[in-house]
Amino acid sequence: MSKEAPAGYSRMQIVLHWAVAVLVVVQFLLGPAMSSFVEAERTGADPGFGALAWAHVGVGLAILLLAFWRVGLRFANGVPAPAFEPKTPEQEFIAFLTRELSFFLYLTIFALPITGAIGWFYQNEVATSVHGSMKVLVIVIVGVHIAISLFHQFVLRNGALDRMRRPN
């Protein structure tokens, strides 16, 4: 028996979405401090206490926990049906892009803190390198996510963005 899709996102799904979005921005602001700390350690210089580096670690772990919570709610509550039924090849492409982008967005939201934690706590240079290299990927994925959301809101005018602002 298939569970019916909810009319919209729950209040908690919306709160978690925006909390992760804000924390991702905070991570980009803390990133240079973490890079400086790691570089100082790598070259044998005294990195100092590294409060901002530890803040980066803490925020990354918070993102990971919130992402697990969000995915749990996604499985428990489901997600609303797509905001529109594609009628043209262009609309089908937008629907495909939206679906696939969600997958890659979740993948990076899990992969970044996991590789960062492995790099930090286990001093694993491969994980640290992968973590640092994913920065551009996240910027692209988030940028496309924002662009598609704005396209839905202002071009298709289907209210898709409103579903992430107002609970069902």
TrEMBL record:
Keyword Phosphoprotein included in the entry's annotation: no
GO biological-process terms attached to the record: respiratory electron transport chain
Residue stretches spanning the membrane: 12-31, 51-69, 103-122, 134-156
Keywords, sorted A to Z: Cell membrane, Electron transport, Heme, Iron, Membrane, Metal-binding, Transmembrane, Transmembrane helix, Transport
Domain Cytochrome b561 bacterial/Ni-hydrogenase: residue ranges: 9-164
Membership in a protein family: Belongs to the cytochrome b561 family.
Protein name: Cytochrome b561
